[in-house]
């Protein structure tokens, strides 16, 4: 979607109809906006609203993350998110199941450690974030989330055309360049290339 184009250019032809001199619109069209460029330093996003939505996007990405070698990072991220959501940890208020682990951890962490383990250990890490305001908690989350290898990336479906045969491959695009994963006969190859060396076709 080109930002310079008017929104109706992307709507179905039947979406907008004229009737009796007034515009009558068809069924609602839902547009999901995604991050175009990833940054590690959230301060580069000067608009607070845009930064908040960027933070929310990363939270969704973290819940799908599979960086098993960085398990401790998910606990710090959860603590930052809890600080942003609930403020300073208060023992007389934040005890027991004061949050839903599914909203802060990927399923594999919950399955591996269990909800009881998470609810037991997170309070201390949440407490360590004392006096961190919402804006600072968002910035910390953005920074730490960007360090996970599979969070600040875009995934694409790539095709290798050989003659009349089209083969499917998986690919991802991160902050510094492209890492393309080529899968064939159970063998995975890694190819690194710069953004300028990759062309795509919608």
Automatic annotation (TrEMBL):
Q: Which SUPFAM superfamilies match?
A: Second domain of FERM
Q: Which domain of life is it from?
A: Eukaryota
Gene3D superfamilies listed in its UniProt record: 1.20.80.10
The cross-references to InterPro entries, in alphabetical order and at most eight, read: FERM/acyl-CoA-bd_prot_sf, FERM_2, FERM_central, FERM_domain, FRMD6-like
The record's section on Pfam families has: FERM_M
Q: Enumerate the spans annotated as FERM domain.
A: 1-202
Q: Name the chain's protein.
A: FERM domain-containing protein
